[in-house]
Amino acid sequence: MTVQTPTPQQLQTVAKECGLDLSSAEIASFICLMSPAIASYQALDAMADEIPIVDYPRTPGYRPSREEDPRNVWHRKTNVVGAKAGKLQGKRVALKDNVQLAGVSMMNGNTALEGFVPEFDATIVTRILDAGGVIVGKAHCENLCLSGGSHTNATGPTHNPFKMGYSAGGSSSGSSVAVALGEADMAISCDQGGSIRIPASFCGVYGMKPTFGLVPYTGIMPNEVMVDHAGPCTATVADNALMLEVIAGDDGYDSRIKSPTIHAYTEALGQGVRGLRIGIVKEGFQHPGSEEAVNASVRAAAERFRVLGAEVKEVSIPMHFEAPAIFSPICGEGTVQTTFRGDGYGLSRGDLYSVALMDKFRGWRQRANDLSTTGKLFLMTSTYIHKLYGPRYYGKAMNVSRRLRAAYDTVLSEFDLLLMPTTPMKATPLPEVDASREDVVARALEMISNTSPFNITHHPAMTVPCGMVDGLPVGLMLIGKHFDEPTIYRAAHAFEQAGDWKSM
């Protein structure tokens, strides 16, 4: 495209949008003054973009039929084979469909991106392939990742692997179902308010939200840069730790990574929990939607840790109840600023920008009516707040989030891990086609009360399957100190080895 000098009428319209009242002579003067800047844009437009080289042959893949994919797990199936040797040699890996895989279409659950084909691989994709992994497809996610359910994708709902017609959780719905069904050995999921942990909990697999800044988000379509996390979803703790070893660490692009501590995470396996101190956060069991059977399953799991040799004690963190009021402005306003106003990528951070994605997603404005109900809700709420009050509440929420982080850190100074239900309830029935708007939103957001706080405090948190209620999985969540994923893996592995979680 070529950047054009504005006409007087175009600039007059822009001036009005900026609150300026300019005469025709002033408009003409500003057009002249803009000439050097316009020339810079034209020169930049003529330059080649900085796009990483894509290794490993791949094909576009295909969209499976509903007969092949009855639970609506896959956006595309493909087969990108990585290096001949490495830690992930032969492991089949699914990618959440907000993660760029060059040459294979990406939708992120939204019609405005339909047909978009990325030009380069996300950093973590390159690392998986370099480690010998095989990318087997792009797994469906919620519409722009704005739901903890699995019913907002533009192609239809994704169904729970244990019970058709029930939620698989979100927003990384397809990633967890693919692993639970054995269609992938491991998957990349992404978490903005629980989007790794919620579907992993609903589907009975292991999902780790690493410490913020440990895994680069480069080449992944963001929501709000201060809550975005990418991490592994797997059928075993060992595979989870193995994948984190491969994808963690600075890539030279993502400015959010600040000299993180990298571990050989698999070395934590087999150490047992004897001597660990685990704090059961009582507030995590006391939400309005908390189900007694879920609470009982998680408390029984906590007792199992005691039997295995850990010191387990109930603790209180009253500020846990205040987290939603802090999380909402950060995630909501940040998502609208980055995803909508920022054409899917936003501004003001050192990163590798996907210009092609930004160009494609800019068209959401012509298809706004196609947004999910939660997308429309986020967009209107944030626009209303911003119009009347500006960004002050986003800023205040960021300030207050430091107190929330300190509240958890105070308890973590005395305990190695915190424990609570991943979600207050087990998987819920998918909304009917004619469900009310209120029901659609409730099924999308009702489960995030325990997961979302750690997206703004940035603590690592992992969901571990710990039992079944009414034929559906229950997950417990382990929360650790910043960059102390090894202790989480140590405890999760000990629990996994203690018995079959389905019969607990």
* Low-confidence region ranges: none
Major sheet description: 11 strands, mixed
Termini separation comes to: 61 Å
- Radius of gyration from CA coordinates: 23 Å
Helix content: 25-40%
Description:
- There is one protein chain.
- Helix 8 crosses helix 10 and helix 8 packs across helix 11 (392-412).
- The chain has helices at 8-17, 24-46, 123-130, 173-180, 197-203, 237-247, 292-307, 323-341, 355-361, 373-389, 392-412, 437-445, 453-457, 485-497; strands at residues 74-81, 92-96, 134-139, 186-191, 206-209, 229-234, 277-281, 311-315, 417-421, 461-469, 472-480.
- It contains 14 helices and eleven strands.
- It has an eleven-stranded mixed β-sheet with strand order 1-3-2-4-6-5-10-11-9-7-8, with helices on both faces.
- The protein is 35% helix and 13% strand.
- The chain folds into two domains: 8-46, no CATH class; 74-503, Alpha-Beta Complex (Amidase signature (AS) enzymes).
- The chain starts with 7 loop residues before the first helix and ends in a 7-residue tail after the last helix.
- The model has no long low-confidence stretch (mean pLDDT 97).
- It is of the alpha/beta class and 504 residues long.
- Strand 7 (277-281), helix 7 and strand 8 (311-315) form a beta-alpha-beta unit.
List key phrases describing it.
504 residues; alpha/beta; Amidase signature (AS) enzymes; 2 domains; eleven-stranded mixed sheet; 11 strands; 35% helix; 13% strand; globular
Per-chain topology:
Blueprint: H1 8-17, H2 24-46, E1 74-81, E2 92-96, H3 123-130, E3 134-139, H4 173-180, E4 186-191, H5 197-203, E5 206-209, E6 229-234, H6 237-247, E7 277-281, H7 292-307, E8 311-315, H8 323-341, H9 355-361, H10 373-389, H11 392-412, E9 417-421, H12 437-445, H13 453-457, E10 461-469, E11 472-480, H14 485-497
Parallel strand pairs: 2-3, 2-4, 7-8, 7-9
Antiparallel strand pairs: 1-3, 4-6, 5-6, 5-10, 9-11, 10-11
Helix pairs in contact: 8-10, 8-11
